[in-house]
């Protein structure tokens, strides 16, 4: 095997190239950049670099998870480099190449600690999946729809807090989830939009008209659509009705079969443009581990048969989902093509983060954020982040 530094040739694959699938494809990478896309019959006789035989598997753009709390026993609220290594390593082994460190509703001090830890982590090498920034889920959410968020820390929207966090850590906050019906939310949403931060509706009792007003103010996303939000009614469409009908809103989706029924998933993808659905995991520290007792935001969580619920009240408490599982579930339960599901897992979140020019799809000149799976999407064989191999199933997991 030729192992020239910085060069890869991934061959014998079905590759998602843009919005199409190329069979019997080969993709070349040099110094972290995709340099050539060709078919097997066009390969030169002499090839430089490490050759990977995909054996008829799939090469996909790396998954981008905008909403993930943890994994493999660690939580982003732990606010430590060791925890962040555990999370980014585990999810890289399941195909995620970029993610947002997602908080829970907590004290301002705890949130600031996550911001400090994330900024410190990003200043280093980041050996596994890339931590693109922070998603603040709360604390400006509805008391009526706390889900698994700790109600003790729910707050009215505080523009001064958001301004201080963004001033202290410029560019680090990429998304903030709030209930747009709460007094003071409009000013926060306008500030977020003006500073390039995704304003998202979640854990909300907003009526249809309130969501529409929030969109006019700059709101562009709905967090875990259908979950912890005012439901659809034919005389008051609610939050869900606004998300389904307004093409300006990106809709996050937890596709694990527990949070959202397959029929509702089909309703969502039939209602929304293909470029407005984003697959997420909402994974907690239990992801990658077995059933047992865990914690989320200071609340006790029990995981049984892979489903996480609060010990008190039984509300779903995040998930144990990974992006490859979500990808496979949507593919199996809708009529969407591989390329369409890939867009939801990679291209659409890249666009929301403003990264579409450099990642989110397999194109010449883009970063080599790549995932190689088997033919059935049942396992991830390799994961590359900017052309660097961060997961090799043949050599054992990286975590």
Automatic annotation (TrEMBL):
It catalyses: N-acetyl-D-glucosamine 6-phosphate + H2O = D-glucosamine 6-phosphate + acetate. The active site is at residue 282. One of its GO terms (molecular function) is metal ion binding. Belongs to the metallo-dependent hydrolases superfamily. NagA family. Binds 1 divalent metal cation per subunit. Residues 59-390 form the Amidohydrolase-related domain. This is N-acetylglucosamine-6-phosphate deacetylase. The keyword Isomerase does not apply. The gene is nagA. The keyword Hydrolase applies. Keywords: Carbohydrate metabolism, Hydrolase, Metal-binding. GO terms for biological process: N-acetylglucosamine catabolic process. Its cofactor is a divalent metal cation. It is an enzyme of class 3 (hydrolase). Substrate binds at residues 148, 227-228, 235, 259, 316-318. Signal peptide: none annotated. Zn(2+) binds at residues 137, 203, 224. Its EC number is 3.5.1.25. Pfam families: Amidohydro_1 (PF01979). Pathway: Amino-sugar metabolism; N-acetylneuraminate degradation; D-fructose 6-phosphate from N-acetylneuraminate: step 4/5.
